[in-house]
User: Fold these one by one.
Assistant:
Number 1:
Amino acid sequence: MSEAIWEVTVTSLMVSGSATILAMLIGLPLASICARRNFAAKPMLKVGVRTLYGLPPVVVGVAVYLALSRQGMFGGLGLLFTLEGMIIAQTLLILPLVWGLSWSAMENVSREVLETHRMLGRKDGVITHLREARGGVVNASLVGFGRAIAEVGAVMIIGGNIAGKTRVLTTSIVLETSQGDLDSALSLGGILLLIALFASGIALLIENKRGGKSSPPEVWGEPVFKTGMEVEVDVVDLNWAVDGNQILSDVSLKFKSGECVAVLGASGSGKSSLLRNVAGLERDGYVSNLDVMMVHQRAVTLYGDVLTNVMHSGVESSEGMWWLKQVGLENFANRDPSTLSGGERQRLALVRALSSKPEVLLLDEFTANLDGPNVSILEKLVMNFISNGGAVLLATHNPFQSQRMANRTLILEDGNIVTRDSLQSQALLDGSWLG
């Protein structure tokens, strides 16, 4: 009996494990495509996939049986009453779960995270989605495996419950129960629970282990800065609308190496939209062949620990530690970025951007949540970038910051560059709106 239990357990793991892997190979790319592309039928497809979560195993079994039988479309393959046929049936059964749950997880990866990867030279494709939505993907795979290992209808119909060949734990439980051997049936059920427990434990370890664990070096290396950069950003008559709402109207601005241009404006005036268009993050926006990095208003952290976040820019760990030291984060190198405060994440986002050595740096309220000393540290880093020939476009609410950093200041109001004569412009420039 022990040999038989071992045999059906191995067969169960092989069939359900193979089906889960196949479902992931098919479902995860589909989930990534659906999560990052918009198309007319997307809502209907999502409803359809979710409807198939409750697909009855016996229905899958009958459909696959018809396809693999002698008169079926694939009858010549001889897959009926084989492990391969059972794997096909279980793959079809759990594919909607893996696809749909992973799709939801990948959709929850923020736009800013994907944009940061793109600016760092990575496509926001399957690999990026898998890394950033790892917890949801692991959960989807576990749910798929759980349904596969525990289902009985499809494997019974396709496999035929042949002893020593296609018998698995669930079909063995059915057989033992039909023969009145309830003790054996319960023992087999216990094995199923142990397998599910082990799979859940492995999934939890993978989910909690943040990828990209780094080892801080003993020696920190100072970076070699780009110097003498000759770049120019010239935006002429930029217009941008969303769903018929005009966000930017005939906006023109120019800045070049060694310059910082500040854009002041009230909330909703279009400052972030302007920066996104200059960065080329909007489809119809300004596009250049320059090396551009944007620091979003909501600080972005990527997969991996704090040091790995800096190393995403392409630097070695020694240089990454040097950058962390500039903003007082060197002792947090192995920390999960999600445990950092908002201000610490802002400091991390800036040094990651600077360590990528861009030609143009776009800053969207990059010191909004910082105290005075840390504001000063970050402003000095940016000014050093400018002195080395970098070009900076700064969106801010703070007129005093624009006075400290900018060569000139523009006022943006309702998506338009306006003169300094209006009462709102004067309040923005002299800071009277603060008090």
Number 2:
Amino acid sequence: MFRYQVLLLLLFTLFSCQEEKQHFKVATSSKGGSYYTIGTQISALFNQKHPNTFLEVVSNDTLSSSVNCQLLLDKKVDFALCQNDVSFSHEGVQKVHINSILPLYPEICFIIFPDSLNPQSLRELIVGKRIGLGPKNSGTANFMTHLFKHFGILPSEYTPIYTGFDENLLSHPDIDVSCAMTGFNNQRIQRILTEQNGKLFSLDQQRHLFDNGSSVDGFCLLYPRSKKFIIPKKLYQIAPEEPILTVAVDAILLTHSDTPQELINEFTQTIIHNSQLLSNKNSLLGQLSENFDTQRLNFPLHEGARIYYERDKPSFFERYAEMIGVVFSIFVVLVGAISSIQKFWHQRQKDLIDEFYIKVIKIENRTKNFKTVEDCIENIEKVRELKNEAFLLLVREKVRADESFRIFISQANDTIRYIESKRQFLRD
């Protein structure tokens, strides 16, 4: 009996000394959305690699990019997936309390319409139609409003239909056109295209697929969180029949700024070190990388993630000390060369004006020898021609409007007046 009690005491002591699991939550979306799939896979990976930590996936039909951000602000979750262009109320000063960890995958803009329609423009497709946009506060609804406005389509010209993500289908009785911002392998998109006779709308013509200058390029300049995206031919078995030009916005993994740096550093390291494993499980994460432009992030990078990304980087001067020395030497030589060129060019411009000045002086000196009114008129015209020629050179930036130029103009005007007085004398 005594041995049994000792064994129980040892077991109790062992389990009581074990470190209590840390519990965190990540906000995703409905179970039919890409956020839920990605969030589940990342959570499973993190829980496997860190047994003392448990990352719980939060999922329901009301979650969206803006809702997820609000949950972060309210500290009801610790992580969230959302669209990189998300906007939500009270974003002002509170926006700094949300931090980015890393971009996960591109969310593509899908505009799907029944194959019974043959729209020649986005306006023709949207105006007067009932447009499925998913939840009212979703990233899709927000993004499509901006996209439609760019193409001159006002909110009053179509009827937005707000549903859950999983209900945003062409088969829905109230939806004429279904719009979605989601990953390319979303089963809902494939189902609409292959089972509901849906077709994808291309935002510009075929000739703009691989070059610049399309309407999509213009939109991306004005909406810098977005980027051009091409949906390949036959991506979804029989659809699309031709490549589709559209836009995309990155899905981003977020956290609260108060989340400990050590946790975020560890979390980021786990994802990056296992990116190949994640990619094998979900092709959406095939482009997962720590090499991305932080300037394109809608929210500032969390300090824990930044420390990880910059872990092996030497300081700027250490990395570029030799190059800086070479560049500085080249800079000194260039400054000297530019200075010499400027002096030469300025002297050349001055010499050119001096030629005009000398010509005017010669005309003035001949004025006393003029015998007729016609001589005066002829030479006045010559001076005016010299003035016009000088101004033409000024416009073409062959000469400068400096003191030499002003002296020439003043001398030319004085010469004209002098000849005019000579002409008046000869006339009288």
Number 3:
Amino acid sequence: MDMSFYNPVRIQSGAGCLREYTGFADFGRRCMIVCGASSARRCGALADAEAALTACGVEYTVFDRIEQNPLAETCHAAGAAAREWGADFILGIGGGSPLDAAKACAVFAKNPELGPEDVYKDPAKLAALPVLCVPTTAGTGSEVTPYSIMTLRSQETKKSFAGENMWPRVAFLDAAYTASLPAYFTASTAVDALSHAIEGYFSLKASAVSDCLAERACGLILPVLRRMTAEESPSAADREALLCGSTLAGMVISRTGTGFPHACGYKLTYFHGLPHGHANACFLADFLALAAEAEPERAARLCAAGGIRDAEELAEILAAVLPEAPAITEAEAARYAAESAAAKNCRQSRRPVGEKELLPLFMRLSK
């Protein structure tokens, strides 16, 4: 039995865990907070961070220009700002976009010679400032992974990079920060987390430890999605379950990486503006169905952990909480299938796929 697993992130959890944290000065005396334009303020996390940093005697500045699906150029600009201000560490606050951007910023701050896309050449050993993360959505699990995903206009897609120095030092999990998220985005981010658990479970890199985490994540997330509707947001208890499930699923992909729903979903996000989790949802049930053909007993265990029969029931749950995806043309379907098939995500699952398998999935979205 393969028990291999590594995740060096310290987790602080519970109501007030950020506001009451007293260890910020351990990372330096100057912090740059990286966030989006409004969500960190709206949910209260930014105010709590500012109060906690001040109480610890840490100076801070705020870089709040991170867009959804952050551009490499924006992350590069954030890194330059951190370096010029003399930041000792970075505090990322937000959903996956600000957290991923915070990690990229930390790399760019320590490597002034790098251009916006140079991090992809040899990222494993790049130096980085310490990063701490406050998730305000229950979706990406970025607070416990070494991955940063940026949007590359040169390649017309999103692309991840990772390095040993990019693991967050501390993750602060307070479900109260997710309470202001509308029902649609709550569902979309939850499906992103579910994607991590399911895709990671069938990865070639899966281990006994990541399997346990994936099963538990499905057991937390799927019952909440089943109770949700497209209009109704979950209760405080359900939001806590989603946040826990998201972090567990993030731990899964920190070991395993993701599968083809992510590779395919990036196309719908980049070209059609579909939020990441919703884009993954367009392919997640198909991923589970193909995995079940290859490994029926393994798929049955994961479905049982999540309280569903099979991939068909998963598709029904997803359809109940997310609207229909925007239509694409047949030409777009052909292009997206070919380009997605070239991604490493499609080769690292126990049931690898190619353009032949992906084309019908994209064609289903065409009108």
